[in-house]
């Protein structure tokens, strides 16, 4: 097994202002599959091509935003080792017991200097059907309902101290820098895109004075045509679209940014290149930051740097 340590993004818990509106959005517009509800009133979803029980959890709250973003790690030994490494680095960790999230094992939760809660876990119930594993069809009816992404792919978080965050992800969790955007001084990072895999990013951060903010949670589609179809479905359902369909310079992904009914931005995207840990990071300079973020407009829209939840 070449991939060890942190494997991939696993789940995001998102706050919504109205649960029923949120359920309708995540189930019928985004097209995720509802997989459970718990005693706290949280609702669980997974994408049609995901096997594990949940990747998106929503709960009703007075403010929108993200409670935590989690990564699945290889096994129990990895979870224990990474917890020790995080503590040795100087971070406080907390063990959340198995079952606190439905069908999910013990989680290690820690706060990072940007003000976000990150979790690691290794066990989650595989609810793939027999058809998932033997002579599978290329897609199922669920792949046609709503936007129907393949998977939760990554998130972009806004907060301060992104140098320290980058160091934690690189030195403790084994991520590597794939791309970064420099500020006007030509030295300081405005944004970093980090990978634990061969994806162009598994998590990204933008420097922002207010801690703990969510810019977007992103969902992968299979083709540029499906990005266009996603835009159609958004308009058919009067979803507030931030920008797109367009292309990012950073990662080369094709994209739409839009908002759930509570104002949490989400992305439906396709493409981007594959990278490896020997990748030399791509740099975007301040004068080209517009093209880096939105390749066709070549300028940032007002919302990109200011609207977060
Ligand atoms: Fe993204």
From TrEMBL:
PROSITE patterns cross-referenced by the UniProt entry: EXTRADIOL_DIOXYGENAS, VOC
The EC number(s) this enzyme carries: 1.13.11.2
Organism field: Pseudothauera nasutitermitis
Gene3D superfamilies to which the protein is assigned, alphabetical: 2,3-Dihydroxybiphenyl 1,2-Dioxygenase, domain 1 (3.10.180.10)
Domain VOC, residue spans: 8-123, 151-271
Keywords, ordered alphabetically: Aromatic hydrocarbons catabolism, Dioxygenase, Iron, Metal-binding, Oxidoreductase, Repeat
Glycosyltransferase among keywords: no
Subunit comment: Homotetramer.
Swiss-Prot/TrEMBL cofactor(s): Fe(2+)
Enzyme kind, highest EC tier: oxidoreductase
UniProt name for this protein: Metapyrocatechase
Coiled coil: none
One of the Pfam families matching this protein, by short name: Diox-like_N
InterPro entries in the cross-refs: Catechol_2-3_dOase, Glyas_Bleomycin-R_OHBP_Dase, Glyas_Fos-R_dOase_dom, GlyoxalaseI/FosfomycinResist, VOC_core, Xdiol_ring_cleave_dOase_1/2, XylE-like_N
Protein family per UniProt: Belongs to the extradiol ring-cleavage dioxygenase family.
Catalytic activity as recorded in UniProt: catechol + O2 = (2Z,4E)-2-hydroxy-6-oxohexa-2,4-dienoate + H(+)
GO molecular function: catechol 2,3-dioxygenase activity; ferrous iron binding
